[in-house]
Structures are given as C-alpha cells and as structure tokens.
C-alpha cells in the first residue's frame, strides 16, 4: 500500500466507523469468544509476501471483531468508560498521519505549546488554582508512579536516584485499601516495597481513610525510626467510588512535611461541574493530582491530566539531560519528557483541543450530569425491588448492589453467577467487586452515547436474568 491508495481506504474506514457506531446496540457488549479462539485463526508464521488491503480489512472484520469487547457500547456499565468521541478519533487520525515525536519543544513546538494551553484549560475547568501546572501522562498509573518517585526523592533529600535505597532506612507511604492497584505497582517499582505501603482503615459512607488512624500510623512509624514520605488519597476509587477527606489528609501531610498525591482518575472529570467539587474539598492543598480525560470527557485513550503544585520537584526526580536532548539557541521552553517517565511522547494534546472545542464545557457537563442522574434513578429502582440490596450508594454515577432473594443459599456464588449470566447475555456489561469480604456488583454509567433508555434496559436485564437464575 502507498500514500496514493490511502484516501480510498481512509474513506472506507470512516464509513465503517460510522456504521459500527450506528449498530453498536445490536452487538453483545462483551466479546463472546473463547480463550485461544482468535489466536487459532492467525497463522503461526509471519507472511513472506504482502497482502492487498481489501483482504486485510476483510480478515479484520472476520477474525478481530468477534473478539472485541465494545467499550464504546452505550450499555457498557463495567469498570470505567474509555470514551472515544468523533472529534477525538479524528484528532488521533491526524496524529497518526503526522506521527510526531513530542519529547522536546524543538521536536514538535506545536505539541508542547498546545499541551501547555490544554492543561491550563483543564486546570480552570476543574477549579484548581493557578499555582498548579500540568502535564499529559499516558495513564494515571504513570502519574502515580511519578508521584511516588517524587515522594521518595524528597524524603531522601534528593539522593535516592544517585545512592539507591540500600542505606536509606524504611520509607513509608500511606493509603487506604480503596486506592487503585496502580499504587501497589508504583510502590514495587519505586523500590519502597509492599510492606511499606501502610493501609489506613476507612470510615463513613464514602469509605474514606480515617484521619485519626492516619495520624496515629505516622506517629507510630516515626517512633519506630521509619521515614514517612507521602500519602496517596483517592477521589472516586475504582471499587465503590470511595472518596478520602482531602482537606483532613492534606492538613496532616503538611504538619508532617509529607507529599500528597490525589488519584481522581475517573471522578476528576466530574469536577467540571461545581456541584460535585465537595467530593474533593481541600484538593488545592495537594502536591499532585491526576485525572483521566480518556475516561469521562470523551478524549481517546490514552490521555491522563497530571497537575503539580511544584513541577520542579517532578523534573528534579525524572529529568536527564544528555547533550543530544538539550535545546540550544531558544528562550525558556518546557521539555515535557522531563516531567514524565517515558522519553518518547505522543501528541495527546491535539485530541483534547478537538474535544474541548467541539463540545465545550457546557456540553461535557450536560453529559456527566445526565449520567449521574440516571445512575441515582437506577439505584432507587433496584433498592425498591425486594430481591436487591444497595451495598454502596451512588458516588457520582457509580454504585454497587447485591442480589439477595429470600431463601437463597451462597449469596457470593449467586452474585458471581448473576454477573456472568448478564455478561453472557450480551445486552449490558457489568463487573463485580468485593466489599467487606462480600461480593457485590458494580454499575457505572459513563459511556459518552448512553441514553436514559439504555439505563432502563440495565434494570430490565438485571431483574430478568436474576429471576431466571432463581427459578432455575
């Protein structure tokens, strides 16, 4: 294939994309293939000769599409969304065609300067004060790792990268069990070690870490000769939407000189709506905050907004400046590769620019508010049903529930069977979690094209299949 043929196949893919989205509701949300089925349809050896594009695209439809779980399906209620809006897809198309490497200002000035401006737009949209600066990371996992590395370096007087951790003493990081498992990985990769991630008990309806227990854990560690380094708080935790009391956490952190990172990967997007900001009251006192526009704002994966009160600390932790990466002969510029773990960087800011201009904050707010309202309404309907129990009330658009009909036996097994039966049915897609050592079912409304009727369908499917299970 060559660039002369590209317009023909580009038009084909555009037409295919429109048809795909028009027919999504008729497709099962979760892939219905068996393990190994897709691999078995692929040759064992790579091809020696090239194939025509029409044959490749035919095989794409025949082999690949049956094994796709449709994250853009309007009835995708599992995990969190990974939305891909039309303007974002077009921006990614352009990015793929231009294919810039955006590691330095001089390697793509437009990418750097658009990123700076987009992060300023997002900072204003979610209500963070002007002292914060932002960088686009690939994911919240990378932002959290960057934050943990910064905690480590600050606690070690900026000597960890040079001298290692062999004689550093035991660093301690504090978080509740509601934080994402990316925190565990960051602790592993940073060399701090899983035993030094101190889990703080949670309390209240929002399942936030107990500030008194946090204070006590820090005091106990200091007395034992450990070295407290930082706190990782969450707003909108993955399992139940748990929200820590950020104001209380940051007050404790400031008193002990600890670095605070707030993981709001999903829920941060909702902060473009003023009425939801009480969930992270006090966030302006954090050192590091992350949320993912690729979850609830319609920007294609991957695109994670990482805000820093003192970006110099992050650059001091991560920056390496060999001669070949220096920018000479220019005024002061930002090289965002010094703010992130990978050296190579994609032009992620372009899709943010397209999405924010295409929908505006008003359009994005309207969708988020609808999703929250529909989730609350569905929780009320399930709560009124005699065979269902709401385990955790909606936090924004996420809640959990259990199927517990009278006389049922092993409730955990029954709920796991219900989730599997629902996902095999294909009309909606849900996932399970575990709360206080019991299985619960998660439901989160957030796919960009979801309508009220799709949420009504969720109620019908859940109750219909649950009734069928019990009758059997």
Describe how the helices and strands are arranged.
Elements: H1 6-22, H2 37-40, H3 53-64, H4 86-98, H5 109-126, E1 133-137, H6 140-155, H7 160-163, E2 171-176, H8 182-189, E3 197-200, E4 202-203, E5 208-209, H9 211-223, E6 227-234, H10 246-256, E7 259-263, E8 288-291, H11 293-296, E9 304-308, H12 311-318, H13 349-384, E10 388-395, E11 398-403, H14 411-425, E12 431-435, E13 438-444, H15 452-471
Parallel strand pairs: 2-3, 2-6, 6-7, 7-8
Antiparallel strand pairs: 1-9, 4-5, 8-9, 10-11, 11-13, 12-13
Fill in the keyword field for this structure:
7-stranded mixed sheet; alpha/beta; Aspartate Aminotransferase, domain 2; globular
Structural class: alpha/beta
CATH class of the largest domain: Alpha Beta
Q: What is the CATH topology of the largest domain?
A: Aspartate Aminotransferase, domain 2
**How many DSSP helices?**
15
